[in-house]
Each structure stands twice: as C-alpha cells, then as structure tokens.
Design brief:
This protein is α+β, with helices and mostly antiparallel strands. It is about 40% helix and about 25% strand. Helix 1 crosses helix 2, helix 2 packs across helix 4 and helix 4 packs across helix 5. InterPro entries: Galactose-bd-like_sf.
Length: about 300
C-alpha cells in the first residue's frame, strides 16, 4: 500500500466528495466554448485517478487480478453515472467511459514500482488520454485564434475551427476568398440540410456589418437561409420570430453577402437580439432536388 500523510488522505477525501456532485449538476451546455467543454471533460480523468490513489492508501492493488477487478468496477460505475446523467439532461458518452479508465490506469500505474507490466499500463493510459489532449490542444488553439483574429469570426484556416462546426462540412484547400482554406458544405436533399458555427462568436457591439463569402461552383443559382441566434433564443422557445433569418440566393462564383447588424439586432418580434451573447450562425437549404455544394469563407465584422 502507498503511504500518505493523514492530512493528504483527508484532502483527497474532501476533494472527491466536493467534486462528485458535478457529475450530475452544472457543466457546459451545447452553447459552451470548446475549451471549457474539454477542460470539464478532463474532470473524469482527475476524479478516477485521485480515487484510485485514495483507495491505495487502504488496499494494495498490486496484482493484475486486482487491476482487472478495478477496471471492471470503474466501467460499471461509469455506466451507472452515464445512465443517471441521461435522466438529468446530459448525454450518454462512451468517451467519458474511456476517460474514467484512463484516470484509473494513470493512478494505478504511477503509484506502483516500475516494471514491464506497469509500463504497459502507463502506455495504455497514455493511449486513452491521447484523444483528450489532442482535443484540448485544438480547443486551446481555437480560443487563442478566435481572440487574435476578431473581428474576423472565422476564415477556416485551422483544423481547430471544426470544433465549433456541425453539419455536412469539412475544410477544403480547393478554393478560398481569404487565406488558403474554406469550409466546403455538402447540402443534401433533406427537408432541412444545415451547417452551423457555434460559440465563441465574440461581442458584435460597436460594429455595423456582418460579411461572409459563399462560392457556388454550379451555374444554377442556389437559395439558402442564413440564421443567427443568441442565448435568450436558444434557452427559450426557439421560435422563428425570435431570431434573425434571411433568404439569400448565391449565383455562380463568389458571392459577398453583407448584412446590417442593426437589421440582425432588430429581427426578433418582441425584443432585440443580444449582439454580445450570440451563440450560433447557421446556413441551411430546404428540400433540394439533388445535393449541392458551396464553399463558405471569411465570416467577418465590419465598421
């Protein structure tokens, strides 16, 4: 068994008891910045790592049989947590189960004398942790780039931008209006085919226009709808009349769309859109006869 000062043991117990409720309350919602979301997810790793460090104050856990039992119990506890989370507004996550195991193996392996098997255990923990640290790196890069390039919302020059893009889209270096890349969007023939760009979008107060470039490679024009929403809309009824919507027609080649922020702000029927708390820019097609492709680039604010 690992020996620890009683004060350290009490500190571990207090930390675990304090953090346990956060599996079920608080945390990032879908509007949260990617960096905050990634840091929060790291709590799974820390909790199970500290838990096994605490348990080893009382139980040796020195044999592979012990490690197997601990791994199976961690999976079982993780399944219980994820099941309960579904009942309190969270989503079931297999990634969180992997993070739980990674934390367990990290705590087990680094509190044991190094042997070949222990090093294999450390490598296993590192393998499970690699996606977390990669996502954390991308989220940090996105956070820094967003602050540095503002009032450019995005020009899609970094892979990290995909952390806040959802829908049938990916980065492309085939064509760009700014830099070397754009976002290639492949609209399908569903009733609504949507690509959205989520937070962080910055504070738009003090600017006059929103501009974006859309390239249509086809000779046939394409009708799209641009939608912008804020925090109050997303947490409320999400009614069509409580956000900004505008139909745009993109013709062959590059289309530079410029919108007055005053019009965006006044779009809701009973209030003003909060330009300091915008959460989402979305572009969608409606009932296309066949799939269509466009390229989106250089979303920016202008004076």
């Amino acid at each position: 068994m690992a020996k620890t000062h009683p004060i350290q043991t009490l500190a571990l117990i207090a930390t675990l008891l304090f953090t346990l409720p956060f599996f079920f309350i608080g945390g990032p919602d879908w509007q949260a910045a990617p960096l905050y979301r990634q840091v929060w997810n790291g709590g799974h790793i820390a909790f199970f790592c500290l838990s096994i460090v605490l348990i080893r104050q009382f139980i040796a856990l020195n044999s592979p049989r012990h490690w197997l039992v601990a791994s199976l119990m961690t999976l079982a506890i993780g399944l219980i947590i994820e099941t309960i989370q579904q009942r309190v507004g969270r989503q079931f996550s297999y990634t969180d189960l992997a993070f739980n195991l990674a934390g367990l193996w990290l705590g087990l392996s680094w509190t044991q004398s190094p042997t070949k098997f222990i090093w294999l255990l450390r490598l296993g923990a590192g393998f499970l942790l690699a996606p977390f640290f990669w996502s954390l790196t991308l989220a940090s890069q996105l956070q820094l780039n967003s602050s540095y390039q503002f009032p450019t919302i995005t020009s899609f020059e970094s892979r990290s931008e995909l952390l806040r893009v959802s829908g049938p889209a990916h980065l492309s270096n085939q064509i760009a209006s700014d830099g070397k890349q754009s976002l290639k969007i492949d609209f399908d023939s569903a009733q609504y085919s949507t690509v959205s760009i989520d937070k962080p979008l910055g504070d738009w107060l003090g600017y006059q226009f929103l501009a974006l470039d859309i390239y249509n490679p086809d000779t046939q024009p394409l009708r799209l709808v641009l939608r912008i929403s804020d925090t109050e809309h997303d947490r409320g009824t999400q009614a069509l009349t409580d956000r900004f919507n505008i139909a745009i027609t993109v013709t062959n080649g590059w289309n530079n769309t410029v919108l007055k922020l005053e019009d965006i702000q006044r779009a809701p029927l009973t209030r003003e859109l909060d330009l300091s708390q915008l959460t989402n820019i979305a572009i969608f097609s409606q009932g296309l006869e066949k799939p269509r492709t466009v390229y989106l680039d250089n979303i920016r604010l202008q004076q």
